[in-house]
Task: inverse folding
């Protein structure tokens, strides 16, 4: 099996080279691929191993450079916009490198194992530095990180002279907090020179304990900087911080945190599995809350999102089991996919005017959700958005929503009343499947398509009022499948596609042979009332 995997990886590496392009400049041949906006330099696995755990990669430059190198800004007429993965991996003779102003990103492992590298000049065009980008550059003593950088990956400068020469405690590189350095691993708990407490177990570093105070002037918190410090109970973040990186505080023991008003982004999984975190206030300066940012914060009971936040990422609050209510400000244009999945204690959700779309499965499985307020101006409700919200009883969908997607209310066993808007043109597949307490539904004349099994197993459904022509159904026999046998479809006079005989009371065969009733002319302009079981 291992041989097969090795062979497959070699074939993949060879395939990359087949599609690669090259440019020879100043005696060096560079391997690159075209990406959006220009050129990305990249290396590939050579098919060899340095040891049991380390692959050997072929860098993007031949011959291997020695001494100083200025990477060209243009190759074959294309600007160099990215230093990609392994681009200069193990270029051990390289001592100084200048990166051109055209480059926007430095990828993972880009300069790893450049053991002779002493100095790097990073231009103000660069916005991100990937994980391990300069890891194991043992002689790297100096690097300039411009204010344009918004992301520094995990261990980007690990095992460098910059790290080794830093005093014990929290390590700062050019205004970024990147981790914690320690030397003595004998005692169970140590106090480092900067006052930081660390925990040592089984002869190894276990993480920071107690409360951490970041120094004033810190601009950002790098990816994974404090992740895994289970005994870390709090952190004081100065107003100077603008960026909180991916996994920055993952699985720490913090109980509360104040995010200062200067922070503009919270990275992916930044507070993932912080089970002791009870409350969080996100200021207006934050533009985006990253994917899985607060996932599995099981003790989180209170979240305040200020007006100004524009985007809530996928699964940002998934499995926050203690969260009871949330108000989403109108500045949030989009609620990402699976944002509140599994928030079983969530009972009340208010979305303010300005929210335009609700992502797929956004509230799936919120078993305690009873009230949901959707704002005017909402245009999109994603697939399965409220699936299995068993406590939801009434829903008013605002005008402007054009479709009720697949599975949106599937398994909402408590749902008794729902009002599709006149702007709605389609009802998706299995949209109301298993809504066993839904007794009556009005379909506006704007609806032209209904998905298969839309009302499957709606066992209490007695009346469906159509206010327009018969909609298209891909598999008509599925529409009322396992619904009540006493169901009657009501249609208005003059509507088309129901039956060739206006006096007929039998629904066409493809509509499961349930009854059809043509309403008298004096009801043609009246929206039939919704009636519900037990009312």
Result:
């Amino acid at each position: 099996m291992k041989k097969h995997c090795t062979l497959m990886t070699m074939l993949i590496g060879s395939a990359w080279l087949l599609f690669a392009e090259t440019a020879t400049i100043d005696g060096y041949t560079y391997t690159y691929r075209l990406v959006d906006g220009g050129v990305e330099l990249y290396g590939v696995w050579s098919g060899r191993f340095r040891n049991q755990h380390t692959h050997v990669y072929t860098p993007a430059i031949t011959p291997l450079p020695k001494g100083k190198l200025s990477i060209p800004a243009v190759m074959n007429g294309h600007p160099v916009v990215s230093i990609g993965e392994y681009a200069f991996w193990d270029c051990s003779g390289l001592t100084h490198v200048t990166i051109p102003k055209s480059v926007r990103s430095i990828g993972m492992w880009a300069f790893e194992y450049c053991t002779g590298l002493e100095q790097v000049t990073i231009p103000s065009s660069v916005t991100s530095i990937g994980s391990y980008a300069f890891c194991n550059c043992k002689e790297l003593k100096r690097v300039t990180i411009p204010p344009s950088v918004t992301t520094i990956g995990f261990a980007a400068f690990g095992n460098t002279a910059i790290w080794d020469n830093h005093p014990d405690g929290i390590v700062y590189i050019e205004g970024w907090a990147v981790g914690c350095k320690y030397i003595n691993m004998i005692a169970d708990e140590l106090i480092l020179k900067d006052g930081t407490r660390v925990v040592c177990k089984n002869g190894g570093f276990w993480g920071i304990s107690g409360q951490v105070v970041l120094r004033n002037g810190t601009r950002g918190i790098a990816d994974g900087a404090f992740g895994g410090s289970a005994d870390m109970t709090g952190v004081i973040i100065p107003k100077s911080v603008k960026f909180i990186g991916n996994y920055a505080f993952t699985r720490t023991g913090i109980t509360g945190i104040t995010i200062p008003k200067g922070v503009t982004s919270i990275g992916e999984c930044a507070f993932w599995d912080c089970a002791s975190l009870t409350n969080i206030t996100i200021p207006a300066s934050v533009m985006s809350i990253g994917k899985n940012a607060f996932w599995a914060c099981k003790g989180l009971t209170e979240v305040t999102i200020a007006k100004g936040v524009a985007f809530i990422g996928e699964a940002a609050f998934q499995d926050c089991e203690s969260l009871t209510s949330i108000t989403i400000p109108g500045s949030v244009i989009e609620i990402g996919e699976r944002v509140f999945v599994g928030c079983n204690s969530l009972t009340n959700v208010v979305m303010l005017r300005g929210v335009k779309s609700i992502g797929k499965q956004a509230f799936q499985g919120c078993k305690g959700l009873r009230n949901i307020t959707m704002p005017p101006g909402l245009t999109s409700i994603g697939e399965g958005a409220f699936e299995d919200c068993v406590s939801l009883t009434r829903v008013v969908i605002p005008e402007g929503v054009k479709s009720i997607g697949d599975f949106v209310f599937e398994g909402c066993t408590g749902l008794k009343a729902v009002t599709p808007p006149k702007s709605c043109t389609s009802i998706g597949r299995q949209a109301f499947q298993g809504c066993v307490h839904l007794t009556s539904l009005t379909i506006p004349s704007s609806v032209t398509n209904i998905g298969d099994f839309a009302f499957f197993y709606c066992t209490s459904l007695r009346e469906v009022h159509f206010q327009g022509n018969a909609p298209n159904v891909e598999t008509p026999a599925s529409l009322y499948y396992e619904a009540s046998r006493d169901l009657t479809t009501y249609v208005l006079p003059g509507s088309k596609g129901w039956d060739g005989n206006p006096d007929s009371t039998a629904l066409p065969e493809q509509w499961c042979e349930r009854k059809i009733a043509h309403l008298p002319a004096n009801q043609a302009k009246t929206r039939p009332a919704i009636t519900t079981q037990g009312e």
